[in-house]
Design goal:
This protein has about 475 residues and is of the alpha/beta class. The chain has two domains: about 10-175 and about 350-450, Rossmann fold, CATH 3.40.50.2000; about 195-345, 3-Layer(aba) Sandwich (Rossmann fold). It contains 14 helices and 15 strands. Strand 12 (about 270-275), helix 8 (about 280-290) and strand 13 form a beta-alpha-beta unit. The longest helix has 25 residues, at about 120-145. The protein is globular, with a radius of gyration of 22 Å. Belongs to the glycosyltransferase group 1 family. Glycosyltransferase 4 subfamily. Keywords: Glycosyltransferase, Transferase. It holds the Pfam family Glyco_transf_4.
């Protein structure tokens, strides 16, 4: 199986790419990591599902994109691609279903998980299909990746993965960066304007945003909602707006380009994020970059980190709470503007280059963890040389000599508080440490926590 050298340093396998009609924040994260590694001199490829808006193959940002198969067909085709190309390292992007690359290669495999899909399976596939999907994600996948390093984007997901029995020493946390906001011509709407942005699928619960408008319409007769995005749940959402009598004030924009997306955000007063689950919620920080606070659900996981509750937005427990929070922000201009300013400061603290360095550090750990097994097995010299070469290239991306601080004493990982931050431990971008817990506990100890603000810091490294 492991018989010859390869020209691909890192192969990402994902069911979608950023150009896919259903692409979102997780796909943007993958592209930024891939482009960053390619920009540092590695040969990087992304294998994903085909769609009618992009060619079967292209170069994008220095990354070769290969598109084959559909929603389910991409999985067996990806395994065949791994077998055929024999990359030095594989990054499986698990969106519920695993790609299972460890079954076909002995090279290092890193499993990137944005969030756990426990709540989403029954919503999309029903009780029986959801139970099967959850068994695959919670039982089968951890078994397949039992020797692999995991990367995730939030402490919430890290805790859930630990609850599934993932060895906490194999978990690395690398948060999202944020794109600099595009220059816009739009100004804040004179009338109250809400925005919800993302794929139109059931687990995003855009219905809740529409319900908010319906409940507040009498109090705010000029209130409007922009629904930005597309998906197979579109017709259901439009029907819901009609049923609630608000179809005349809910605008469905469909798919928009980056410029149009930023124009919509710049017009909004408040961003709503009613998702069942978010690994991080990239759109939260995108909205924040336009000084727009977010109202979302506390139970959504990663929103507890992308939203600083009471500072950059408001986290609530249910739909009633969302209606109340939105009403309060619409009525209290000073509070809304203060949160928007804090949200912009919070968003500005996240940087993609530092995220790429953190991601490269996690990949380097995965290669080092695999190297003893490779050296001890009967594999060709060329393969051993490939592994050693990849470690050197990844270390060059990380900048080991000056870019990492592996000291784990005290609160060193937290760094200084944001300028003007009076909230102490509730600051805009405080560090994260995991304490205590045993296997199967939802607390995590010894996770490599990689913050993407400069300077890059790792609280504890298990390589």
């Amino acid at each position: 199986m492991l018989s010859r050298s390869t020209s691909i340093d890192v192969l990402f396998v994902n069911w979608r790419d950023v150009s896919h009609p259903e692409g979102g924040g997780s796909e943007r994260y993958v592209h930024r990591m891939a482009e960053g590694l390619a920009g540092a001199g590695l040969t990087v490829e992304l294998f994903c599902a085909a769609h009618d808006r992009a060619p079967a193959e292209e170069m994008l940002g220095g990354v070769r994109i290969v598109r084959r198969g559909g929603r389910l067909g991409v999985y067996p085709r990806a395994l065949r691609h791994v077998l055929r190309t024999r990359p030095r390292l594989v990054v499986d992007v698990q969106n519920g279903l695993p790609f299972a690359s460890p079954l076909v290669t002995r090279r290092p495999v890193v499993n990137l998980v944005h969030h756990v899909h426990r709540e989403q399976w029954p919503i999309v596939f029903g009780r029986v299909g959801g139970a099967i999907g959850w068994w695959v994600e919670s039982v089968l996948a951890p078994r397949i990746y039992r020797r692999s390093r995991y990367v995730t984007v939030s402490t919430a997901t890290a805790e859930e993965l630990a609850g599934l029995g993932i060895d906490r020493g194999r978990l690395s946390l690398v948060r999202n960066g944020v794109e600099p906001p595009l220059p816009v011509t739009s100004v804040r709407s004179a009338a109250p304007h809400l925005v919800v942005l993302g794929r139109l699928v059931p687990h995003k619960r855009v219905e809740h945003a529409i319900e908010v408008v319906a409940r507040l319409r009498d109090r705010w007769p000029d209130l409007r909602l922009s629904v930005v995005g597309e998906g197979w749940w579109d017709a259901e959402l439009r029907a819901r707006a009609v049923a609630l009598g608000v179809d005349d004030v809910v605008d469905f924009t469909g798919h928009v380009d980056e410029q149009a997306k930023h124009e919509e955000l710049a017009r909004a007063w408040v961003h709503l994020c009613p998702s069942v689950k978010e690994g991080w919620g990239l759109v939260v920080t995108e909205a924040g970059s336009h000084r727009v606070p977010t109202v979302g659900y506390r139970s959504a996981g990663g929103l507890n980190e992308s939203v600083v509750d009471g500072v950059t937005g408001v986290l609530v427990d249910d739909l009633d709470g969302m209606v109340e929070a939105v009403d309060d922000l619409l009525a209290n201009e000073n509070r809304r503007l203060a949160m928007g300013k804090a949200a912009a400061r919070h968003a500005a603290s996240f940087h993609w280059p530092a995220s790429v360095r953190g991601f490269a550090a996690a990949l380097a750990s995965a290669v080092r963890e695999t190297r003893p097994a490779v050296r001890g097995s009967a594999v060709p010299v060329a393969v051993v040389q490939d592994v050693d070469r990849l470690v050197g290239r990844l270390d060059a991306v990380v900048g080991v000599e000056g870019g990492l601080d592996t000291d784990d004493s005290g609160d060193a990982e937290r760094g200084p508080a944001a300028e003007g931050d009076e909230h102490g431990d509730q600051g805009l971008h405080s560090g994260t440490r995991f304490h205590g817990g045993r296997r199967r506990s939802v607390t995590v100890e010894g996770v490599a926590v990689i913050h993407n603000t400069d300077p890059l810091t790792i609280t504890s490294q298990h390589a």
